[in-house]
Amino acid sequence: MKTINLKNYYPYYTRDTFLEVPDEVAIIFENFAKAEAAYERKKYRYNAHYSLDRGDGIEHEILFVSLSPYEIYERKLTSQQLHAAIASLPDKQAKRICAHYFIGMSKTAIANAEGVSEKAIRISIERGLHSIEKYLKKYL
Q: Which pLDDT score is estimated for 92?
């Protein structure tokens, strides 16, 4: 057991308050203090007196490019056409494509969930993408 001063770790402690803690907790506090000191040194060294994580919108204004009404309409139209193309697929293909590309499941995970081979999933997704391509070429 080690004795720590809570005033060193918590800003709302204004007087010395000593507490016995297990060795593991004391090590965690020491590692945190070292990491904080390293961060402060790095901030000083590189003159980084502000953070993009600050949340006041500075980085959002810099990175956000406003879209023209035409671009907004084009994106909406493309999205609608993509959804229509997916809806034209057989149910299994549509679910497999949505699971892989929109949810982010791996083909192996989809195969395990459906109880089929990964090759069957891969072929199904490839055929579905080919069908989507044909559909979009026909209507574009």
A: 92
